[in-house]
Amino acid sequence: MTDLNSSNIQAIDSAHYMHPFTDHKGLAEKGARIITKADAIYIWDSEGNKILDAMSGLWCVNVGYGRKALVDAASKQMQTLPYYNSFFQTTNVPAVKLAERMVKLAGEHYSHVFFSSSGSESNDTNIKMVRHYWATLGQPERKVIISRNNAYHGSTLAGGSLGGMAGMHAQGGVIPDIVHIEQPYHYGLAPNEDRDAFGLRAASWLETKILEVGADKVAAFIGEPVQGAGGVIIPPKTYWPEIQRICDKYGILLICDEVICGFGRVGKWFGSQLMGAKPDLMTFAKGVTSGYLPLGGVVIGRRIAEVLIEKGGEFNHGYTYSGHPVACAVALANIDILEKEGLVDRVFNETGPYLAQKYAELAHHSLVGGAESLGLMAGFVLMKDKAKHINFDEAAGVGMICRGHCFANGLIMRAVGDRMIIAPPLVSTKAQIDEMMALIHLCLDETLIDLQKLGLMD
Ligand code: PXG
User: Fold this and answer.
1) Cα(71)–Cα(14) distance, rounded to whole angstroms?
2) Domains by residue range for the chain, with CATH
3) Which helix (H) or strand (E) holds 453?
4) pTM of the model
5) Separation of 367 CA from ligand 1 center, angstroms?
6) pLDDT tens digits along 419-456
């Protein structure tokens, strides 16, 4: 590299760095935004613009940027033991401490933790673990995993297959024995139906699918407590208890993918604790280290751990970085911060309800439909005609128009189709939520003007 000014970096980026989930031709035309530093809930780009990061990076920087305690924990651990594996009857202190701590946070129902480095890897682990569990119990034909449309469970081949994103299935294919049911999206699917009744009806689709596949062939159901990447789809409160009841009725394992909802995002340590479900497996990643280092894994319920340990023999699965000592040390320091600063309770009692109140006010905007939030994750959909429940034509890309205004005004808000979503750091104060909301209102007004000019409004 020669001169590192922004346009040079953009040119080299374009020439050599293949980004995830990116249309490279489009990116090359305008150049990537170069993020250079961050503090608290703000990031800065190479042009000196300060941007409020209402997405916590990618749903992960729960304790905010610039936390020295996490840097110190990594540095200390790197100097003591930067790496060792857990394969050959060896272990390391941070991994042991973290496993114990996570089991305590998860509750009595759980006894063990399996570590990986990402959410995708962890969901691959889940598939193997549930199938191995049933094979150990003499039911190897129980292989099918039921998931949901528009779910996101990662982008490895297995993670992408579990997910319900058609665009991902179309590239590279899918693995067999995974089937999907419709998501519990009340505003999108049945806005006129009573919300709780819809929740029960959406859960009943699981039972229908179990009967269609044959209960003796179904290994597990997997779902995010609140669908994140799918657009912050918050299920009715009747949904998860009914899902749990149906899984129990057929003896099917329940996996909650807590990669986004875990570590305080919805005001509890795990989203399932709020939703009234007791999954047998919980996938985690992201917020466990607040994204400072890659770490993921699965919290394992006693029902599964007992069978695997007593009768399962060797579990032929693991990653070089399973239980990475530096990542685990950072996770421990991250949990210290969440506990000491009472961030999980603060989301539940103070900032979550405050954001909910502000999101309810957003509903007055003529573009905004189905605005809702839970803890510190929130979404709404841009509507062409709210009263008649008419969406924009997908091809018009109104979400991207709105996102463009957000970027230009110093706010990171994500567009999932026409759904606009946020998941700000858990350290966000009420004043910072006000700042976010003011920017959202401004961007909505600017979007409306654009859409009128483009003749997209009736
Ligand atoms: N499960 C859930 C619920 C996730 O949100 C994963 C698994 C996969 O984690 P890894 O660490 O393998 O990426 C995720 C990741 C988006 C977006 O556009 C969301 C994720 C990843 C990339 C983009 O919102 N979530």
Assistant:
1) 31
2) 33-63+342-453 (3.90.1150.10), 69-340 (3.40.640.10)
3) helix 430-453
4) 0.98
5) 28
6) 999 999 999 999 999 999 999 999 999 999 999 999 99
